[in-house]
């Protein structure tokens, strides 16, 4: 846990130093403009992903096809990149752009099969029986009427009273 705090301080130092380096390289006004553009793009990305990101993740899971880990984590990566763009500094902006790269992996189900494991794909649609996927079960039935015995009839009449 202490390494997380040290890492955060190092990242904070690098962010400040990146602002100074970029300001020295392209000038203070252009640096400020880049930081404002980065913040506004992060806000717009965060507004765009809102509920639609969660719905996109749900649709990817419910699609019933083999989906990659990239497709499942895309809404999370997108929102994290938006938050990183909103933070001042250019190191987090570089990490945000790396998160937005379209890196695609193998589908989750194929990854398990290629490793030699027989793995159940939780995202695949279930087959509903051996009759071609129908929900109809064919069969015959007969209705029989059972007449209550005298003891049961007395009990039923007693409960009605």
Please give a structural write-up.
- Residues 119-161 are annotated as: Disordered.
- By secondary structure, the chain is mainly alpha-helical.
- It has a domain at 35-114.
- The chain has 6 helices and no strands.
- Helix 1 (2-26) crosses helix 2, helix 2 (28-62) runs antiparallel to helix 3 and helix 3 runs antiparallel to helix 4 (91-99).
- 7% of the residues are buried.
- Mean pLDDT is 76; it is low at 111-118.
- The portion of residues assigned to helices is 55-70%
Listing every helix as H and every strand as E from the N terminus to the C terminus, the arrangement reads HHHHHH
The computed structural class is mainly alpha
User: What is the quaternary state of this protein?
Assistant: single chain
C-alpha Rg (nearest Å): 31 Å
Major β-sheet annotation = none
Treating each run of at least 4 consecutive H or I residues as one helix, how many helices?
A: 6
Mean model confidence by pLDDT: 76
The fraction of residues assigned to DSSP E strands is: under 5%
Uncertain segments are 111-118
Shape: elongated
Q: What is the terminal-to-terminal distance? A: 73 Å
Q: List how many beta strands DSSP finds.
A: 0
Key structural traits:
6 helices, mainly alpha, 65% helix, 161 residues
Q: Gist?
A:
By secondary structure, this protein is mainly α. The protein contains 6 helices and no strands. The longest helix has 35 residues, at 28-62.
């Amino acid at each position: 846990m202490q390494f997380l705090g040290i890492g955060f301080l190092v990242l904070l130092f690098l962010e400040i130093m990146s602002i100074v380096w970029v300001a020295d390289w392209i000038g203070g006004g252009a640096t400020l403009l880049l930081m404002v553009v980065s913040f506004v793009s992060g806000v717009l990305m965060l507004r765009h992903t809102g509920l639609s990101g969660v719905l996109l993740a749900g649709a990817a899971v419910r699609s019933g096809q083999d989906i990659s880990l990239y497709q499942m984590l895309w809404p999370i990566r997108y929102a994290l990149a938006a938050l990183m763009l909103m933070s001042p500094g250019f190191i987090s902006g570089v990490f945000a752009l790396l998160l937005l790269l379209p890196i695609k992996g193998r589908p989750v189900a194929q990854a398990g099969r290629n490793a030699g494991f027989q793995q159940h794909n939780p995202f695949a649609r279930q087959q509903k029986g051996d009759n071609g996927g129908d929900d109809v079960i064919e069969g015959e039935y007969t209705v029989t009427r059972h007449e209550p015995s005298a003891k049961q009839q007395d009990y039923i009449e007693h409960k009605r009273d």
